Prior knowledge:
Layout: H1 28-40, H2 47-62, E1 66-67, E2 83-89, E3 95-100, E4 106-109, H3 114-120, H4 129-139
Antiparallel strand pairs: 1-2, 2-3, 3-4
Amino acid sequence: MRINNIKGKKGRGRPPTNAEPIGLRLPPDLFEALNFWIAEQKENPGRPEAIRRLLAVQLARRQPKVLQLASPRLTPKRSGVGLETKTFVGNSGTTYLVFRSGSGSFHVLAEVEATGAARDCGAQEGRSTRAQWKALWDAK
């Protein structure tokens, strides 16, 4: 008995991704600090994801204001759209990475609610979240 509708044999190993693998060795103190940071996060990301997040925040602080995100998980809703970035330090000491899209919407990279983050950075209450972030953005 022959079956004509069998799909081709799948290849072995992990499917290809649009990313470069890197090997990384951490000294014990950095390894413990990374694990501590992961434990504080609501989502409890794995080590690779935690390293990607921390690296993205640090690079955004040190590089020009316009950041073209290359990772599929970090791309804006429309591909090819540059995002402006700024960092804000709230009164609580929390650092927030804020993205502004070409359409004027604001996105906050932190494990908190965007409105709470805006207020923590000194925005006036009683305004929309977008208006709060616009005022903070323009003031910086």
